[in-house]
Design a protein that fits this description.
It is built from twelve helices and twelve strands. The chain is an alpha/beta fold. Helices cover 38% and strands 17% of the residues. The chain folds into two domains: 148 residues, Alpha-Beta Plaits, CATH 3.30.70; 191 residues, 3-Layer(aba) Sandwich (Rossmann fold), CATH 3.40.50.300. Strands 1, 2, 3, 4 and 5 form a five-stranded antiparallel sheet that branches. The protein has a five-stranded parallel sheet with strand order 9-10-8-11-12, covered by helices on one side. Strands 6-7 form a two-stranded antiparallel sheet.
């Protein structure tokens, strides 16, 4: 006898009696020979993906055990959709009921009809939160990360792949955390363009570190115009990966720490309109380490103007980054504690590279 497979099915409805459609779909799943419905997550209301103007959805996740193959289960799910009035139109069109096979044990399936795990489940908070309610430690078979960690990366948001945009991967973190080193390693893995902040060409930065606070605004504007030229959509190619050792929005963090009130007010007048003119990242890698380890790297790279950086200065910026990413809604964020990751180890970089592939839309990677 075939051992039953633990599987997860996502259900959604935004037409008709949404609650009844979901309840009836779960009941019909339970009536399939070879399927045992174990439990379902809470039903929640969600906004349509990609900003589409249509009614809101009700969504939940159902946990089952089944003796059926994934292909046969998928066919039965389609039959349930049809019997409940599903009309198949363009992608993400309104529907009375939608059943998605999210996970089928630990199997990885790629056929013309069926892809498992669901190819965008790791971008959907409403899916991951439902799975977490049922089994937070269930590991994604491709990304090799728990559902709880995948959900944390989304900060309560739902995202979609947008192949028409530059596939910008931005590395974030405090000074000396290793952003540039990781950028180079990942760019080599992907064979893609890499973008670096012009620390060594900024004529104002050494003077600011030397105490000339009146030049802090000049220094920030130098960085701002450099980021603008690098991240302007015309400078990047849609659908092609590019990796930067900074995020454009870190400008906010540094400006608030380094500028006086008058400088900050002027900076905001310049920054806000420019921030709408750059490509947004599709993924952020946020590196975290102790101030002591960051200072060790700073000393090693031997930029003279950085050698007197105080650990408290780095701790303050780390706190700013934490608050910043706690409210981040632009794209998924992979947080990496450097006590658990070493970019000098090929295996660690390979593992991260494989995870990144699940968050970008690039062919033949």
């Amino acid at each position: 006898m075939t051992k039953p497979t633990l599987s997860y099915i996502g259900l959604g409805s935004n037409l008709g009696d949404r609650q009844s459609c979901i309840r009836n779909a779960v009941a019909m799943l339970a009536d399939i020979p070879g399927v045992e419905v174990l439990r379902s997550s809470d039903v929640i209301e969600t906004t349509p993906l990609a900003g589409l103007e249509q009614p809101k959805y009700l969504n939940c996740v159902t946990e089952i055990k089944t003796a059926l193959s994934a292909q046969n289960l998928f066919k039965k799910m389609a039959q349930i959709e049809n019997s409940l009035g599903r009309v198949r139109q363009e992608k993400w069109s309104p529907r009375t009921i939608d059943l998605d096979l999210l996970l089928f044990g630990g199997e990885i399936i790629n056929t013309a009809e069926l892809t498992v795990p669901h190819p965008q489940m790791h971008l959907r908070s409403f899916v991951l939160n439902g799975i977490c309610q049922l089994n937070s430690e269930f590991e994604h078979p491709v990304i090799k990360v728990s559902a709880a960690e995948l959900a944390r990366r989304l900060n309560g948001c739902d995202f979609v792949f947008k192949a028409e945009l530059p596939q910008l991967i931005s590395i974030a973190g405090v000074i000396g955390v290793g952003k540039t080193t990781l950028t180079k390693k990942l760019a080599a893995r992907f064979g893609c363009k890499q973008l670096f902040e012009p620390y060594d060409t900024n004529p104002f930065l050494p003077q600011v570190y030397a105490g000339k606070k009146e030049l802090a605004l000049d220094s920030q504007l130098y960085f701002l115009t450099s980021r603008l030229s690098q991240l302007a959509p015309a400078a990047l190619t849609p659908g092609v990966p590019v990796i930067s050792d900074y995020i454009f929005d870190q400008e906010i963090i540094y400006a608030k720490r380094l500028l006086n009130p008058e400088q900050l007010a002027l900076h905001e007048q310049i920054y806000l309109p420019l921030s709408k003119m750059v490509a947004l990242p599709v993924l952020v890698i946020y590196l975290k380490d102790t101030a002591r380890n960051c200072l060790t790297r700073i000393v090693k790279r031997n930029r003279p103007y950085e050698q007197k950086i105080d650990p408290k200065f780095l701790d303050a910026f780390e706190s700013d980054y934490e608050n910043f990413f706690n409210n981040w809604k632009t794209c998924p964020v992979i947080r990496i504690q450097l006590c658990e990751f070493d970019c000098t180890k090929p295996a660690d970089v390979d593992n991260l590279s494989e995870q990144i592939k699940s968050y970008i839309t690039v062919k033949n990677l």
